[in-house]
Amino acid sequence: MSEGDYAMLRRLAVFAGLPDVEVRKLLGHMAITTVPRHTTLFLQGDPATRFYIIFEGWVKLYRQSADGHESVIEVLTGGESFAEAAIFDESVYPVSAEVVCDARLLEVPGEPLLRALRSNADLCLNIMSAMSRRMRQVVHQVEQITVRSSVERLALFLGQLAARREGAVELHLPIDKALIAARLGMQPETLSRSFSKLGSYGVKTQGSTVIIADVDILLTLGKDDEDLCPPRIDRCS
């Protein structure tokens, strides 16, 4: 594991505050994997044996009805984790997970983690903190859908994708527009209209390429005043 990967893990609530020796002991049971696009990690109803932390890339969580209709539940990127809750109640995965942009993932097997939890109160508190923070993030996302316009949500997403860049920027959308719409809580046709409205703020699209005349102007429109830091938005290579 690179120093950058380790530093990112240490910033996650699960590992925050734990001594290095404890973190590295836990990492001995985990594995970093590089997973290509379109790989299914698990299916809805499979036994929940592990959860995942995303270093890079994008993962789609979805449910499929009996008639084959797919509903996207969430689209996640670097610095986010998923499937923890299913591990702790030793049940099955309530959703399916598919890599939608080449990803580097940390696989966390459930059994060694559960053994560690039984003997480490600090780790238990960290897990509770991580799940609490995750719940607050979900509430925050729902609130954003309620109080922000679709144009503002898209502006914030593009601003995060630009990641500390200034002035004129050309971006490549990391995932399909339908998945971006799902992440932002809107229909694909609403996303298209929102891109059109951002034209007056200097945003142009050419397929999956987005040209932003001035990132600062865009960030003013999508400024996020919440205390919760949004996850890093990864760009696919």
UniProtKB/TrEMBL annotation:
InterPro entries: cNMP-bd_dom, cNMP-bd_dom_sf, Env_Response_Regulators, HTH_CRP, RmlC-like_jellyroll, WH-like_DNA-bd_sf, WH_DNA-bd_sf. It comes from the Bacteria. The keyword Membrane does not apply. It holds the Pfam family cNMP_binding. Residues 148-216 form the HTH crp-type domain. One of its GO terms (molecular function) is DNA-binding transcription factor activity. SMART domains: cNMP (SM00100), HTH_CRP (SM00419). Residues 14-134 form the Cyclic nucleotide-binding domain. Keywords: DNA-binding, Transcription, Transcription regulation. GO terms for cellular component: cytosol. Gene3D superfamilies: Jelly Rolls, Winged helix-like DNA-binding domain superfamily/Winged helix DNA-binding domain. This is Crp/Fnr family transcriptional regulator.
